[in-house]
Amino acid sequence: MCRWLAYTGNPIHLEAVLFRAKHSLIDQSLHSRLGHTTTNGDGFGIGWYGHPTDIPFRYRCIQPAWSDRNLREAARAIRAPLFVAHVRAATGTPSQETNCHPFRYGRWLFAHNGLVRDYPAVRRDLMLAIAPELFPLIEGSTDSEVMFYLALTFGLERAPVAALERMVGFIEETGRKHGVGEPLNMTVCATDGEQIVAVRYSSEGQSRSLFHSTSFRHLRDLYPDDPRILAAGQNAFLVLSEPLVDLPGWWEAIPESTAVVARGGEIEQYPFTPELA
């Protein structure tokens, strides 16, 4: 389907995780080891913050990530304390720039891996639930963008985890009204530049893979001479579809039906339970 990652910590160059890691996101776009599809070549996007309170920058393109020379140049130049990157494998909607992640609203960025099943059957009902003031901002045709605007409608800016639970509950309720037995499969990331919220959930309990880094303080003790750990700092955090390197103690799998919130060096996990809107 798709692969994505999000980073927060000391400012680092994007190329460190997009290109230079052994199993970088660009490598995953060609050779995903844990994804539903091996190749993710239907476009890509990056979003990054110069400062947590700024509106994030964004670059999206419909080319495969591995063949975009401008992405390589941008990743070498851009140094940021928080960023999101996504490589896309389309699930029934066109390869166009407005369908590439991350999606943006104000300070918020949103990325998704997975699908709303039988999306054409439920699309109208889902879109009609989006707040009227948000509806004109929808640019593309993906289920992922609709998920984002539903979460905003349900209060993403005030209480992110609760809003995502309401979004999922509404999609599942709508899907089942249309006879869809397992309406949703997702890993998602939402960030406002100050926190990263990531969720792993699916209606069938077999979600796409999702991992996060263990404590960088602990990693520094395990690998005191690794320049990547020293550069990121002790409060750094990565959440991602697949591990970037194969080193013991570096990654922790996020359990099913779990939300992870990273903010200011603190990492908290919560049970994720969909709620009816």
UniProtKB/TrEMBL annotation:
The UniProt record lists the keyword Disulfide bond: no
Domain of life assignment: Bacteria
Keywords: Glutamine amidotransferase, Transferase
Gene3D superfamilies per record: Glutamine Phosphoribosylpyrophosphate, subunit 1, domain 1
InterPro entries documented for this protein: EgtC-like, Gamma-glu_amide_hydrolase, GATase_2_dom, Ntn_hydrolases_N
Chain ranges of the Glutamine amidotransferase type-2 domain: 2-277
GO MF terms held by the record: transferase activity
Name of the featured protein: Class II glutamine amidotransferase
One Pfam assignment: GATase_4
CDD domains: YafJ
